[in-house]
Each structure stands twice: as C-alpha cells, then as structure tokens.
Fold each of these.
Amino acid sequence: MVVEVSGLSKIFRDFWNRSKAKAVDDIAFQVRQGEVFGILGPNGSGKSTTIKMLLGLLYPTSGTISVFGKNPRDTKVKHRLGYLPEESYLYNYLTAAETLDFYGALFDLPAAERKRRAEQLLDMVGLAHAKRRPIGEFSKGMARRIGLAQAMINDPDLLILDEPTSGLDPIGCKEIKDLVSLLRDRGKTVIVCSHLLSDVEDICDRVIILYGGKIRAEGTLNDLLTVSGSNTITTPALAPKEMEKMLAALRSLLKDEEFKVEHPKRTLEEFFLDVVERARSENIETAGVLSGGKIAEYLEGGGDAEKGKILDELAAPEKREEKAPPPPDEEERKKTEKAEQALKKLTKKKETPPEEEKPTPAEVDKAELEKANRKLEKLMEKK
C-alpha cells in the first residue's frame, strides 16, 4: 500500500482550545500502488484538510497515517512526493524557467538535469515560448500550468493534485487527464482531490465521497455508477423501415413499459477539443497558450535508469582533460578585439614629464641678490 489511513480526525480549535470545527471525522481508506484515487466532496467537506495531513503539513487530532510505510513528515517520503496545491503559490519575480530550476534544486537535482527537465516540462504545459516571462505576468491558467510542472520536476512516485483543473481551459484539462493516465501506466500513484465530477470520472479507478468530514461512499466508479435496472443498446444508423420493425418488436416485448430511442451524443468537451484541433490544423495564429501535446520525455519511462546514470556520473572520478576551446566565429572575434583594445586604453599608463631639477639654496640666494641689485640700479638711474 502506498497510503494507509485509519481513524483519522482533525479538529480546529480557537485560542481557548475550544472546538471550532471538526473538519475530518474518523475516516479510513487505503491507496494502492499504480491507481488513481479520487477524494470528492462539496466545499468544506474536509478534502483539502485530508490532503494536508497526508503531506505532513497538518497534525491529525487523532488517527494514524502511513505514506510508503513511513510517517508523512519524514523528509525521505517528501522526496518521493509531488504536490499541486489548490492555489498556486509561486514567486512572482521569478521567470517560468527560474521557478522550475528553483524547485529542482530543492530535490538536489544536478544543474544540467534541472535544465533538461524544465525545458521538457515547459514544452509539455505549453509555456516554452514564455519561459523568460516573470510569473507575476501570467494569467491564472498559465500559473496553474507552471504549478503542475513544478509538481512533476522530481518525477514523483506519488502525485497529489488538489483541484488540478481549477482555472484551466478544456485543453489544459485534457492534458492533465492524459498525464495522469500515463503516470498510472508507469505504475505511479495519483491522488486527485476535486469537486468537478466529470474530470474525476474520466481518470479515477476508485473514489471516496466526503460530507461533513465523514466518508459517505467508497468504491470503484464502475460499481458506484452502474444502473442495473435498465439497459442501453447502441446500433449503427438504421433505415426507416428497419427502425420501424425494431420499434414494433420492442413494443411487443415491453408491452406498456416506456422506452426511449435517441442518437448518441458527444460531450461538450469532445466537441470543443475537436473544434480547436481543426483550427490548429489550419495553422491559425494565437497569442494564448500553445501546447505541443507531448509528455515530458523523462516522465514517459526510464526514470530509474536515468537516475542511476546521474548517480554514476557524480560518483565517477573527475577527469581533468583540457579540451581546446572551439574557434570563435567572426562576430565573436570582433567583439573580443574591441574589448581588448578598450582594456588597453584603460590600463595604459600616462607618460609623466621628467621632473625639473630643483635649485640648491645657495643658487636661490644668489638669484634673489641679483634681482635686488637690478631693482636698485633702476632706482639710481631714475634719480
């Protein structure tokens, strides 16, 4: 089991230790490896509180939590987690690329690996063209995409998504569903917390439904949603005569019971995505989010081999082979020459004129005496 919860409760209290709200009330569930598990419920039902206790961000009032067989506050456990919070709290002054590099550094990823993963993730979430823009300039949907990318930077074994499609357009919602499906195929575990039932229905294997802090329903979607009292029959398009024959047979079989015949319908999401795909095929320009529709390569598989390769490189003795620098191009050569000339001008010593020899005191006295004699001679001549 990846997650095991038993008798979990959380009571929020005021300054006087009086009970204000019982957010979670004695719940128990398990999450298996390789499944997508949904936590559903209306606002205020205890979904986000449960998620925060699974992450070790809140202490439970009572009960036990085990994540990968350990306490969720263990730092080794946190290295295997990825978390997208309900609100994306990011540094507005960092660019998209700097944000992913920062979170990658928290997991001790080498600089080259951080750069590689950041480029792949930005391409995956459709923001490669905006990687040098500050997060503060992003719309809510764009910031949400960066939040998803940071949750995946460490290739987590357990990914926890709290309201993952909040603020996203239908294209972004589909990309998240595709990503979750891929992670499940790789044996990863995903917990999705949402009140948007259509999104959960498409991707979850099992769900629990909370209300008032308690689990009101639990099971697989197939067991919970199957209506055993009626049947649906889907046939190819029939000619009018064949349709009449089939309806007559149904009337005679069902007698007075009502039945309904209608054409199957696509969902609005399917129709929307089809319209957007046709527009893209016509190469229509847009200033909005672009998506390559490609999952980051390191998320597609071979993560363990890649990690082993990185560790081998770090453990290997450093080779001090000096490689000759590549020859600079013409433009770089000119820039280098200009910089060297400017540096020479700044560092060139100014030539100082030779110092004049100072007269001796005797020579000074003699010069002053001669000057006084000349003045006396001029005065005598005037008389």
Amino acid sequence: MRVTLVKPGRLGRPAGFTLLEMLVVLVVLGFLMIGLSQGVRAGFSLWDAQTRRVGQTAELDAAARIVRALLTNVASPSSTGITTTANGAFKGTPDSVSFVCDLPTGLGTTQRAEITLQLEFAYWGAVSPDQTGGWQAQWEAGAIPELIRLRLFFTKGDQRRFPDLITSPRL
C-alpha cells in the first residue's frame, strides 16, 4: 500500500494568486505610479521656471555685451573727427556718459557716432598726474579713464539684478 502525503492548505486549490495578493500588488503599483507622476510634474515645473529665468537674464546679457563693446571702443580725442565736449571726446558724470566710438552695424562695417548713456557710472583713474587713482563719480579730464564701472538698478519688486559692468577702454 502506498501512502501519499498532502500538504495542509493545498488540498483541492488550484495554483495561482489570491484576491488579497492581487489587491496588494495593485495598491503598491498605484503608489509607484503616483510617485512617478509627481516626480515628472516637479521636473517639468522646475524646467519651466529655469527657462523663464534664463529668458529674463538673456536680455541683460545682451545689453551688457553691447555696453561693454561700446565702452571698450571709445575713440581717442586725436582720432575723432567729432568735437563733443570742451575737454575732448569723452565726458562722464555720475548718471551719464558721452563719448565718440564706432557703432557696430552688423554688416562688417562700423559707423562713428556720438553716444550718451543715462545710467550710474563711476570712473577709475587719476584726474591729475600728482593724484593716486581711485573711483571718481565724475570725469572731465582730457584723458580717457583706465576703468569704467556701470551700475543699473531696477524698480522695486523686480527680481532681476544687473551685475556691475567694469570695462577697460582700449587706450
């Protein structure tokens, strides 16, 4: 006579998963899907915020490049054919600067013009040979200053910040 042992709990049940096991798996998969969708949503919102921030600063970068190019290419008083100020081709005050330089036309040629910018400026250099150099609020010496600093302040509530632009004219 042959005796077969039957494991308890398996008597007459087909192989497979119970309803409770399937519900647990579906709940875990649901939590995973919620977590993944929230992560993707957060990634897209961060991407959008960064794109807006880059767009805002791109305008400032373009303005800084143009102003730097103009101030770097200030023409010396002897090479200008234009007389703009009593002391030469360059005059600077705390809130404006007037000078003669070559404007880039974008076509490979330049055009000389008198330019006046209304911003906050400071000028580095010695006004006279017997003085030491330093930042000056106003510049009326016959020579071109060694450095020019430009500061731009926005209205209250505007989150943008324009960094100080310091350039050295080609002497």
Amino acid sequence: MNKILVIALLTLTAGFSFSQESTLKLGARAGFNLYNVFWKGKPPGIGTGFGVGITGVFPIIGSLAFNPEVNFYRRNVYNHELSGDEKIEIPAGPMAGRKVGGTIKESMTEFAAGVPLLFQFMPISDVPFYIIGGVLFTIPISTELECEMSLNSPWSVMDRSETMDFKNRSKVDIGVVLGSGYYITKNFAVDIRGSVDLTNISSKKNDRNTPYNPFRRDKTWLIQYGLGLNYFL
C-alpha cells in the first residue's frame, strides 16, 4: 500500500510541475472493464470488473495535457474451460503432464491498484473530443485462482475444486493504453480505452506444482477494454 501512495504522490506532483501557471482539473473516475488473456492456442473467456479512483488533467501547452490517474480495481481477469473430446493435460500431482479426457474450469479474480500515466490531446480546439495514450502500471494486491477439475483416466477419476492465493503473480504489470473521450459538459467526460500488458501475468514458468498455475506458458497477453466516467470539481 505504501508503494501505491508514493506513486500517487509522484504522479500528482509531476502534473502540478507541468502546470503551475495553468488551470488544472481534479476529479473522480468510475469505470467498467472487460478482460481477456491470450496465449498460443485457444483464448479464454471474457472477464469483467469495475474500478474507482481519482483523476487529474494538467495542461502542458495548447491542446496537450498530462492526465494521471490512481484507480482501484475489483476484477475477474481470467475464465477458461477445456472440455469435450479434447485431451487435457493434468496440471499437478503425481500424474502431472499426462493427457486425459474430462473438464477443467479455471478463473482468476483480484483486487489491484492501477496508475495510468496518460497524455490527453484535443485535435480540434472547438470540439470537446480528445485522444488519450500512455502507459499503465498495475499493482496486484490480492489475487485468487479457482480451479474445478473432473478428469477421467484409465487409472482413476479425479473430481476437485480448489481456491488458492496466486503466489507467483507478477508484482507489477506494465502496459500501453490508447483511447478517446468526449466532454459532455465542462465537468463531466466519458471515455473508452484499451490496454495491452507487456509483462507476464505469472512470475514463474513451467510451474507444475500445486497450487496449479494456469499462466505457466511462455508468454501471456492481458488485454483490457474499458468504459469510464469522469467528474471534475
């Protein structure tokens, strides 16, 4: 939590230094997000989440402004199911690595803090439409994995449901953000944005030990799509 407060202070201080002689805006933000995790092979299902936080707009020059935020998210990042006639690789235990028939359902839910450092640009001065882009730092605070397995093999039938802390979660996710927005009034704006994380969800690869880590692939891509509402004081 101390890291989050330090980052928040740095972003607000940086914004103030850009605009000491200009009018700045401070306000609150709420958003609804969709998530997807991709790797080589079948993509998982869509996850959902929401976030609230604070936002600021610090004019730099002309139509360009610095737009930092500090947000807190509750999100179901990952949902995935393997079933049917597909052969499923047993993830953990004495038969780890063997492929059998059955069903596996996986999900990941977490509480996280996000610090987008964005730039806002209005291409037409008389139109309150703007483009945003920048980087996103996300700090997972609490992450849980849930796994339900029903596997059939010549040796046994395995039915198990387990929820566990994701101990190998990466400490920080770093991504790029691009989007656009519109000022409905002087103090109220709506925006849509997308982000792609450039870092792996898991800090450990080739992890076949319990608890099961579904992100042990060589590379994972976390993609986020968001709709946000901003109210400025």
